[in-house]
Design goal:
The protein is built from no helices and ten strands. It is mainly beta and about 140 residues long. It has a single domain, classed as Jelly Rolls, CATH 2.60.120. A hairpin with a 3-residue loop joins strand 1 and strand 2.
């Protein structure tokens, strides 16, 4: 099975830092709307009817694949593409973070942070993400 390991590194009342490591086994194919973080993973737990996260910063390094960050819902909403074969830092703090701006009221939001990949399927594809997130 392809490995996606996530760990909350730091969590405070208003923000958290999440680390994720991804490695393909060469058999399972692409990740499609894989859940990185759910409102129930937060302390205190959040409900799906209140969008819980804003992406403030992302640090990443991907080998041979791209990752699309999305917010969950009936139709997941793409937020940003992290490009392959690069090592980068994205900073959304200047405008208050990248948030889930789905329907208002949030009738189809589930508060989950998702990823989908392109090029992850071949064996040896691996990458790391560190996300600084603000809780709402």
């Amino acid at each position: 099975m392809s490995q996606v390991t996530t760990r909350i590194v730091v969590e405070g009342p208003s923000h958290l830092v999440l680390h994720a490591f991804l490695e393909s086994n060469g058999y399972d194919g692409e990740l499609d709307n894989h859940v990185l973080l759910s409102p129930v993973d937060l302390t205190p737990k959040k409900t799906a009817d209140e969008p819980a996260l804003r992406i403030m910063q992302v640090w990443y390094s991907m080998v041979w694949f791209d990752v699309v960050l999305k917010f969950g819902g009936i139709v997941p909403r793409p937020v940003w593409t992290l490009t392959r074969d690069s090592q980068n830092h994205i900073d959304f703090r200047a405008f208050g973070g990248a948030s889930d701006y789905g329907t208002v009221p949030p009738s189809d939001q589930n508060g989950k942070l998702l990823i989908s990949t392109n090029g992850f399927a071949p064996i040896g594809s691996q990458g790391s993400l560190v996300l600084e997130l603000r809780k709402r």
